[in-house]
UniProtKB/TrEMBL annotation, chains A, B, C, D:
Subcellular location: Cytoplasm
Binding-site residues, Mg(2+) 1: E232, E268, D296, D339
This protein's encoding gene: xylA
Known EC number: 5.3.1.5
Quaternary structure and partners: Homotetramer.
GO molecular function, one term: xylose isomerase activity
Protein name, per record: Xylose isomerase
NCBIfam families with a match to the protein in the record: PRK05474.1, xylose_isom_A
Organism annotation: Salinimonas profundi
Catalysed reactions, semicolon-separated: alpha-D-xylose = alpha-D-xylulofuranose
Superkingdom of the organism of origin: Bacteria
Residues where Mg(2+) 2 binds: E268, H271, D307, D309
Similarity section: Belongs to the xylose isomerase family.
Length: 439, 439, 439, 439
């Protein structure tokens, strides 16, 4: 089992002309782009759950993957074997970070005490693994959606004891994340939502969610955790409607409960598109609202209405994402996490590497193309020119509140204002982006 | 022209057994339901624009309707003829309210002065018409999206002079609405959004939109208008993305600019579904957030991705809408407006009546069925039982903030909490709703 | 286990005023509608799989249902217990039919021989159960999508040995269906499709699918099975694209392989909407193409992009479905099957009954409302009037091919034809439907 | 007017390093790729309608473009001016082909005779223009959807006289296309569909559509037109449902009426995605069914549910399209037509060039990348290996019909077949595509 990936050597950068499928063509960790290494810019992380806890089952069929560590034996033993395999993979891949849920790494056991003990032991195992391999933790989180007790939500459950069980998991997961030097802590409200409005008290559930998030903030400060707290929006699936629908919805929630300075968002590409937005839109909106945090880079399928969590493979899309991030100063503690699932038919050990290599090369290309866009910043120039009226005396006064509706109407009538419409030049700008990508 | 609807007599209530297509089967204005008349509950309004300004053209074809008042002649003359026809229709239909945009009722003219003069004259015409017919104005609004000058937005336009032109229209439209006794004022940001992020400064446009809305609030108070200010969410169309995407997004916007006590939402059924939500969801969310205002009852087609603005015809859906409204105390100044378009093939004068009669009967049935649900409120009972844990001592403490994450984790571990999951009974509740509707 | 439903008595018809949730309000099996009993019209069936093989797990969480017969013990013993519970449920519900997949009722075992033996034994068990309870089999089918060997398709698998394994299952499932007096045999190509075109030979897979279906036809005739062979369209899920996308696509496939007289379609409401069509559209299209067979009545959620398989609860929709079926002569060997899943939170034994009762009452109401529509057939009248031109001498000649493009152009020019457009009266017809439903 | 594009010089190829927005970076007409010039491979066409007949109006607003030739004056005069401007544009752009509808180029007039005369005159004008400029006609078509008479369909209209008017237009448009040396003739059934099933006789309309298409085939042979007849699928918009929904649906229709050897499809990227398919899927399906003809390259917006008809700008997508076409032997008489609309805000004359230049460069890059894929055909290799079992003796026998269901089941049981599942390698193949594109 420890030898699950024995046939696979650590992945190296071999450049675009390499035909070795198990090598990077574009991701060269130490190569500098705009003054920082790719590794520092991109801050890649792999995930524990889809890679090491999922067996390939879907709603219409059973396990297709051969994952020996998921099979019979003592639960703690299996958890340790899983950690061995996971860190072997992480190290060979060469992404600097990983991410986990509490119950990915430790068995839940039969009682809350089992849970606490198992998780504590496995936290020590992870600490040792981190030391041995140099891997770092991008973020930790608690899975408060898989156990049947959470079928009707965690902090939004009709039963306060379920809220309490969820609080217990988040308490321990935050502590473990802090102990392991995690750079962020994530909350994804997997079942914080509803199946039907007929049995749902929206206002109460929202208030309880607000209370829970305030408890998380208080605890963060109490333990001195200085990473970001991140909410991960998703519109639906598994539930019909989830409260953290998209970035704009999360922003409203944060404002309602006075949390907008305490939380940022972890934006997933696939959740963006499920919510009716482009991935780019969600990133740009998060920056505009001041709540950008981190990214789950996994994409969806444009024709499918569920979360396929595929590896990113569009350089065209990723270039705009990287441009947006670079323009806004880059990641602070966030990074590109791969919350990615292999296709269920990709059953070979090597497939796990293929997926990640492709995803990392896609992001690396996106970064390089975005850097080229910034070096000749036609986007910025076009925007400056387009909005220049707002930098005039009149524009500034309007923006700054020097006019009332009435005084502005009077001005308009007196001046007989008749502004002309001006081309938005969308096609030309799209061409210029492509000309940068395909040079 | 004044005789356009001459063949059609005022619409009367004839009851469910009537086979007269030009009669109400269920809407009986003076019939009491839960202590108020249907008219008082439902507060129906017809719109000026789709009914009297649209000629039946769509993107792939020209006018199909014969609307004499849209054809050649002096613009003010045509505007007056349009008013004659419109009020003839309104009166015969028997809905107590109507709604309009400034440029629906008056010609824009060539200059801003023309606009102001024409609109002032037509406001007087409308005042006279209201007096003659007893019609009331549910809300007024300004069309700041059709003129080419608004192609890149109104208050979010790159050009501050366009902002100023929009302010001028809104200034006059608010004044006219106030003068005509309008009960609300609506803002729909038809092109307040973007076509491409490549040429868009999201943050600046958002700030300008915030400034504009604050100007509207100031003006409202200045003129002593005491109706509601309403924002109408729509996710996209005509633009790729609109800033007032859905109710939750509008809420976040209002909170950002300190406007959440000054604005409510005008929820359109078709806009709800275009944004990925059920109509019911948008209504329930607006109430949960304290920003419910009014409704545009027009629905979409479940298979189509654009705004078809069809007349509501699902009693099953409308029953839940009416239940939600009744449970929350009913409309204050809002009402059910029909922002509805005939199908382009429905070219007969009578078709305008068929559409409205069907829509009004659908709402009337929804109201009666909802009243029956409230008389035996199994929904309320089911919710009370489901959330009863939150009314216990422990539940209240959790909700009220008496626990920290840590103290709640300690309690959970000490008590070895192991809550059981309980059926959500969705199917049974759905059956009970149907049993009420089909009794 | 045999006592799983002991608390529940057989479901009786108690009429619309009953408040007993475990009674029919509208489905009265022996009540006559248009000369046949409801039971004869509706031909209800329950399914084995979602009701008795599913444990409540979804992609994000584990089992929520307590299904003792799915738990540990000898596989054949468990299969027999499952059959006991299933037939207890079927009998108490009072639907005359059931449906199953081979592996729902018998353990697959380790080898193909195990499979054959287990299935043969369980077929005998089912025969006995049918005799004891009077239950009949609406259709049987083979599950050739859940076992990992089918991950890349069954008859469209890249490996012909997988095709052979699938053929073996279908051979035995057809024989069992025939032996049990099944009235139809269904094929749902769960993974007959592709995940990516990059590794897919569309033409070869299509040909293999065609060959497989021809083998099925040959076998049907060989064994003298005289029920319908049914293909069940579904556009996607589990795979990205499925070859039996929708009714029109299936029709093209059948025509290509000369099968259009041998197969009909089993239309599922949820699959219709996933493919971008209304449920009504799929039914009407199947009749227009002469390939209507049977129905899976389970609906989707209008906001969700996956197969939720919910119980039907819209009488408004079901009325049009029943109208279409009645107008076309009713079911022959098909019926309304409930390929329905409980919501994952509906964990009580009674919930299985609530779901089915609601679904059956919805269909029963749909049937009665449709019968009322037929008694005063305004739809038929409107269509006759609308197309009357095609019954004239000129219309008949055009339709029958008496004109060429040229001679018709000449006629048009000579006659200077200038046809006027006529109202489609959609709103009025929609009102008339509602007036029939809500009388 | 003839000087509308005076500021713009003919577009030249300047290579990827050019920063001139009005130059090709990748489309080099005479450059050879796999033995043919780019011009011969790509066979670009511009369209008359969106470029020269549309004024920028959308459903929510009026004209934004300044198109002098659409404004007042004698209709035939304006048509000639339009032709001047159009051919000036076509010539400067350097695409070898154009496409038109009858009513794009000639005024409809008041009577059918006017139509015939005007169209005849303008056909002569076009012939002269073609001669002067060297432009060729990729295809012609008739617009039988914009005039109000077609609001309920053309060949599927309830009124046979409308069928006759449509036949007249198609008769003349086919003749004109033939006369102008057009290489194909296209039929897009803009309103051949329904708004509501309540007033629609599906079977009759389908039969009339079938009759119409047979008339078209007969006429083609009669006049000796040897180009392809092309049907353009579209699922909806303007109507709720269109009969030519997608390629698979069209195939079924053609088979029903014995037309599958007479028609091919003109696949539009945006129509593909509106119908729930990828553009690639539609192309691959058309080749698999033997009905591929030509392409409208205009794409949609992934978040919008209507036909935005944008210029193609994804090289990643276009590479797979070009690969599919090259593998199947390239275009015969078809080509890449731009049925593209400028964004409504792109109001400058230069914007028309920007859009087309970007689209042509995108296709040119796609072609070159596809050629590189074919030179090292890992896709073909992967497929050969994946399906190799079907080339064995056993596989061939199964595919060729040497087994019955029974004999194959017997073989499976005797051999105790237990095939193993094998990785589909999707991620690796996706990486290899990207490695080819970004080298
Ligand atoms: Co994620
Ligand atoms: Co996801
Ligand atoms: Co509206
Ligand atoms: Co609307
Ligand atoms: Co289904
Ligand atoms: Co089904
Ligand atoms: Co199109
Ligand atoms: Co097209």
């Amino acid at each position: 089992m420890a030898n699950y990936f024995n046939d696979i050597a650590p992945i190296e950068f071999e450049g675009p002309d390499s035909t070795n499928p198990l090598a990077f063509k574009h991701y060269n960790a130490k190569e500098k782009v705009l003054g920082k290494t790719m590794e520092e810019h991109l801050r890649f992380a792999s995930c524990y759950w889809h890679n090491f806890c999922w067996d390939g089952a879907d709603v219409f069929g059973g396990p297709t993957f051969n994952r020996p560590w998921l099979q019979s034996g003592d639960a703690m033993e299996r958890a340790k074997q899983k950690a061995d395999v996971a860190f072997d993979f992480f190290s060979k891949l060469g992404a600097p970070f990983y991410c986990f849920h509490d119950v990915d790494v430790a068995p839940e056991g039969d009682t809350v005490k089992d849970y606490v003990n198992n998780f504590a032991k496995m936290t020590d195992v992870l600490a040792t693994k981190q030391e041995e391999t140099g891997m770092k933790l991008l973020w930790g989180t608690a899975n408060v959606f898989s156990n049947p007790r959470y079928m009707s939500g965690a902090s939004t459950n009709p039963d306060p004891e379920v809220f309490a069980r969820a609080a217990t998991q988040v308490f321990h997961a935050m502590n473990a994340t802090h102990k392991l030097g995690g750079e962020n802590y994530v909350l994804w409200g997997g079942r914080e939502g509803y199946e039907t409005l007929l049995n749902t008290d929206l206002k109460r559930e929202r208030n309880n969610l607000g209370r829970f998030m305030n408890m998380v903030v208080e605890h963060k400060h109490k333990i001195g955790f200085d990473g970001l707290l991140l909410l991960e929006p998703k519109p639906q699936e598994p539930t019909k409607h989830q409260y953290d629908y998209d970035t704009a919805t999360v922003y409203g929630f944060l404002k309602e409960f006075g949390l907008e300075k305490e939380f940022a968002v972890n934006i997933e590409a696939n959740h963006a598109t499920l919510s009716g937005h482009s991935f780019h839109h969600e990133i740009a909106t998060a920056f505009a609202l001041g709540i950008f945090g981190s990214i789950d880079a996994n994409r969806g399928d444009p024709q499918l209405g569920w979360d396929t969590d595929q590896f990113p493979n569009s350089v065209e899309e990723m270039t705009l994402i990287c441009y947006e991030i670079l323009k806004n100063g880059g990641y602070t503690s966030g990074g590109f996490n791969f919350d990615t699932k292999l296709r269920r038919q990709s059953i070979d050990p090597a497939d796990l590497f293929h997926g990640h290599i492709g995803g990392m090369d896609t992001c690396a290309l996106g970064l390089k193309k975005a850097a080229a866009m910034i070096e000749n910043d036609f986007i910025d120039n076009a925007k400056s020119k387009r909005y220049q009226g707002w930098e005039t005396d009149f524009g500034s006064k309007v923006a700054n509140g020097d006019y009332t509706l009435e005084s502005l109407a009077q001005y308009t009538e007196q001046q007989n204002l008749d502004p002309k419409h001006v081309s938005g030049q969308q096609e030309m700008l799209e061409n210029m982006v492509n000309n940068t990508i395909f040079r």
